[in-house]
Write a structure and sequence with these properties.
Chain lengths: 672, 672
């Protein structure tokens, strides 16, 4: 028997693999360094302070300040032309905000959800909310398009959580204080998340989930506006579609047709101007001005006909003046701090997700980048300072951002312009809005919600990815038929489970050689080739007696170790049956796509190695990456497999296997 | 200017890639087929019914029956020799079980945790528990080594949950009924999980978590045994180390030194025999018999000296006879069903995880395979039938399995032997155990727990994988310092978060060409090469103007889309700086290791493509897999990138880029 001698084997190995698999530096890498590198890459993917070390202290401080305060970054090159655009955009979104700040969506929903009997009570906080936060955002925000303001979803959420503790109708003062306190906690949470660089948390709210959630919320808010459209004075505290419709049809005696007629007219006008804007983007100011026009016309109309006596409820007395300080109003007593914290944290997470998603969507249209962590800090400061100045929770608002974008804003300065306009109105013009019919506000809110049910995007999801569609539909239906928290919870849970399922079931596939070089033949020495999934490329060539398996798509870890063991065993069995005549002698595991392995994963590989050895097969490993090689060495598995059975490429591994196979066919034994 | 003509480009493409990237069949695959394939691979990784279609009905039925009832599988080839081994092993584990069934760990802990004042009450269910379930397992179980019986952890859990509703000292009958009912729900849950093929759930309890949990639980149970060792008659219901030690040192007046002396003697004897077994595995019967010996000696000793009058509490009257039916005792009233369900489900999950883990560990030592789903069904039936016959929750018990394995069992028949031995003892010998000193049982339990704190495995985890060690330590400390549920919850939460982190932060790396063929030079036409991480292989050759980036380790999805966008942008920026002189013109994305992509992932690729185009760079994609190619086509991204810019291998992509690069340097424009 002409056995392959160790020397021959060595030479063959060397011939086929001049560059050995690199295990050494990995093994030497200390835990601290590896953990630091992993942590840095996890939390600072953008690595903001590269190359700071070499700078003089003053420049370094300036660079750090510029990083943390984006206004310093853009103000350096700020020109009169830019200001002109920002001024225009700012006035436009202020137009949108003034009626909204008189009664923003949140107030309408707050009122309805708190089911107050009178619409004339004092001290509803939201009427101030648009003034201070935009100023903060103008300085701290990293997005150039975002228009900030209160949003309906988080307002409703705060209202429902705080309302569970104190009803606004029972103790208006305490209720307001709790709302401010929850804004404070929102600010603390958001700023802390940003400073801890946990922008990563927001990543787990997927866009399909947000789409479904926004669509469902828009439907719920539109349902709430039926109160205004029907001129009803009472309303249910529930938000799900079944309860709301049941309440409405059980209370037909409250309906007042005058409100309905006026509301439908307003709505048709608003939808028409929106259509005009869509067809002719240059006429954006028509649709941007129309909410203010509706409010003005509504005011004049209801003042002239004394609408509140003829079935058209009006807003009532508005408090005039600038936001008072509310620092002394924050309630940190143990009795209330729990509910304020809960309201603040839950709606804060939600507001963050919504604001960041809105910012991202528009930034993507301009090919700009938004830093999730900076946005978090900006939102946090916005709400912290807001809670000190009688403001409600604010975030990036979709409709405002859309208008800001279409109006051609250049920087966050447009938010400052909006803020100044708001302040002027609050100081000088507040009494004018007294006669605003509630139905006018309902029409404005409804028209702005219509665009948020993105049926086209939902249909597209259905076409491209059924699982994403399921997430989106679950969120939408959850919000509509239950509560907003249910919808969001279900959507996030499905998303997370889906991500976990990817981890639990990584992909294994049998690879074959696909030639794509200019050389001829499928021999070992052809020009260029790739090892691809034989299921995808049925023409891929496999070598008899050698099975190349690829494991990819997930780290090899506790969640999939058992699955992989079974799946690899099944591949081997299938292959044994397929090559019934000849023996299967080599199993090459391509783990180049495996980025990490934990100890159950290592145990799995050890078991696979043992099982194959028992069957008289040899296991080879292709291209272990740094983190994996490290563990292979530490656990002793590298030694068990043998370093000469670790290869850089599948081609190399197959060539080596084939070489020893030929040796053994001619009477030699495969070197083990 | 000698521009590259379309024809030339086509030829070049063809020359370099005879096999085009396969996008078509993927696009044609209907959703139903794809979903079915994914579901089948997720739930039936072992694909048990392959090739059934071609068989005659009778054989097919036989094969299915053999699949579901493993006993049919092994009984066909069962021989007298095998039975001899099983008999020996069965008698051995019965020896271990008889004292344990008189007062198994669960009873001791049940008693202590229920804090009963008298040790003489009737009707404690556990004394029956070892009789029926092993018979069921002998028929249904897929493991050949597993010894079944009640385990301390799930018993303690049931005791603490049911004890929260009804104290055993208040209403012994109701308490017992609730314990049976919880066993019923455990059975239902386990069988349902098995039938639904959700063995996947157990995968998320990682081995490090189970190691920590078992170690912590062993410590807690040993602490509970201090009651026996100190001869105390009352004990605290808490299980955490602080509460237990505080109770013990606040009640020094209860201590009785006689029990301590006797207990320490027994413990030394048991530990000594265990050491004998370890040094000389052939003497396993010494350690296997020693528990029974301790019980017998203890009985005789306390009978002779009337121990219960001299500070040595005894077991007291044992009910004689076989298990009565308990079907009529199950409580399904709304008042109790909740607590029974909770106890049953929580401890059922735990028992399942423990039993499957134990089965796997020993199967791995014999290179056998265990089917998680079959085990679930077997455990479920075991507990269902057990709940009808006055049995407590049972599962695979570690100590019993270890003894069974060392005693040389061949099949699950050893469980049947154990069961018969138990029945004989229950019918004929029960009164003999009346005088058993409680401290003897405490010593037996303590000695069996000593081996469960696997300090060597924990130290090994620390060396190989710090994150796994953290999971293990969290579970252990959680159990010891809080409750078992806390410990398990913390461990599972850390494991899941870690898995999610892998999804949120996939690996990106810059690849370079490492030659490992026998050809010479690093030219495009060399023999064999691999593209490897340049951080791992510093010698890897990169082509100027071309950046090859690999994305691997996770599906590209909502959780990492934004991260990948930022990370890829940073790689491109770094590369631009690094090749300051020359232009970076091509970015090759190697997504061969990406197994799935969702719609936010697609959007990310679209944004990256747009961003690169804005910079005047061209994006190429290497080796998209079937599922990914499908989405690329459906979403229109394949068209955007251009099919001629999708390659099978990195080598091919680089060669094509280099070719067009040369063309453009000589005055041509890169084809877009």
């Amino acid at each position: 028997m002409a056995a392959v001698t160790p020397d021959e084997h060595e030479r063959q190995q060397d011939g086929h693999c001049r560059a050995r698999v690199n295990l050494r530096p990995a093994a030497a890498r200390p835990f601290g360094a590896a953990a630091r590198a992993a942590l840095k890459d996890t939390l600072f993917p953008d690595d903001p302070f590269r190359g700071l070390g070499g700078m003089p202290p003053a420049r370094r401080a300036w660079r750090v300040a510029r990083y943390f305060v984006p206004a310093l970054d853009w103000s350096a090159g700020y020109s009169a032309a830019s200001f002109w655009y920002d001024l225009l955009a700012g006035v436009t979104i202020a137009n949108l905000s003034i009626p909204a700040s008189a009664t923003p969506p949140s107030q309408a929903s707050l009122r309805s959800s708190a089911s107050v009997s009178s619409d004339h009570e004092e001290g509803i906080p939201q009427r101030y909310s648009c003034f201070v936060p935009p100023l903060v955002y103008a300085v701290m925000g990293s997005s150039r398009n975002l228009g900030v303001g209160p949003v309906a979803t988080s307002s409703l959420l705060v209202a429902s959580i705080v309302g569970g503790k104190v009803r606004a109708s029972d103790d208006q003062r305490l209720y307001t204080q709790l709302v401010f306190t929850s804004a404070f906690f929102t600010g603390v949470l958001q700023a802390a998340l940003g400073l801890l660089r946990l922008g990563i948390l927001v990543d787990f709210m997927s866009r399909p989930a947000i789409t479904g959630f926004m669509g469902g919320t828009a439907i719920v808010i539109m349902l709430q506006q039926l109160k205004g459209f029907l001129g009803m004075t009472h309303f249910t505290t529930k938000t799900d579609i079944v309860s709301v419709l049941r309440y409405i049809f059980h209370n037909t005696h409250q309906w007042q047709w005058q409100s309905t007629v006026l509301g439908v007219c307003f709505l048709i006008f608003l939808v028409f101007t929106e259509q005009v804007r869509r067809r002719r983007p240059k006429l954006f100011w028509v649709s941007a001005m129309s909410p203010l026009l509706v409010v003005v016309v509504g005011c004049v109309f209801s003042f002239l006909i004394k609408g509140h006596k003829h079935g058209i409820p009006i807003v009532g007395t508005l408090k005039r003046g600038i936001n008072p300080s509310s620092i002394s109003q924050l309630k940190f007593q143990p009795e209330y701090v729990g509910v304020a914290m809960k309201a603040g944290f839950v709606s804060g997470m939600l507001a963050l997700a919504e604001g960041v998603a809105v910012g991202r969507s528009f930034a993507a249209m301009k090919n700009e980048r938004i830093d999730g962590n900076k946005e978090m800090v900006a939102f946090g400061l916005m709400n912290l300072i807001g809670s000190f100045t009688s403001c409600y929770i604010t975030t990036g608002a979709f409709s405002k951002t859309a208008v800001n974008y279409h109006a051609g804003c250049r920087t966050a300065m447009s938010n400052a312009v909006m803020s100044v306009c708001m302040a002027l109105v609050l100081v000088a013009l507040a009494p004018l809005f007294r006669h605003t019919p509630l139905v006018a506000l309902a029409a404005i809110i409804t028209s702005s919600m219509l665009g948020l049910v993105k049926h086209r995007e939902i249909r597209r999801l259905y076409e491209v990815d059924k699982a994403d569609f399921a997430v989106c539909a679950a969120a939408l239906l959850g919000v509509v038929f239950s509560t907003m928290i249910t919808g969001l919870g279900v959507a996030v849970a499905i998303s997370v489970l889906r991500a976990l399922l990817h981890v639990a079931r990584p992909s294994t596939s049998k690879l074959g050689r696909v030639s794509c070089g200019s050389g001829a033949g499928a021999g070992a020495a052809d020009d260029d080739h790739a090892f691809c999934d034989v299921a995808q490329y049925p023409g891929a060539a496999t070598a008899p007696g050698i099975l190349v398996l690829q494991v990819a798509g997930s780290p090899v870890c506790f969640a999939n170790a058992e699955y992989l063991r079974e799946r690899i065993a099944r591949w081997v069995e299938d292959e044994e049956k397929a090559v019934a005549g000849e023996d299967l002698l080599y199993v090459v595991l391509d783990i180049g796509g495996v980025t990490a392995i934990d100890s159950p994963g290592i145990e799995m590989l050890r078991e696979v190695h043992g099982e194959l050895e028992r069957k008289g097969m040899k296991m080879a490993v292709t291209n272990p990456r740094m983190a994996v090689a490290e563990k292979l060495v530490l656990s002793g598995l590298a030694e068990l497999v043998g370093e000469s059975w670790m290869f850089l490429s599948n081609g190399d591994a197959v060539a080596a296997c084939r070489y020893t196979l030929q040796g053994s066919k001619h009477g030699g034994v495969p070197p083990v």
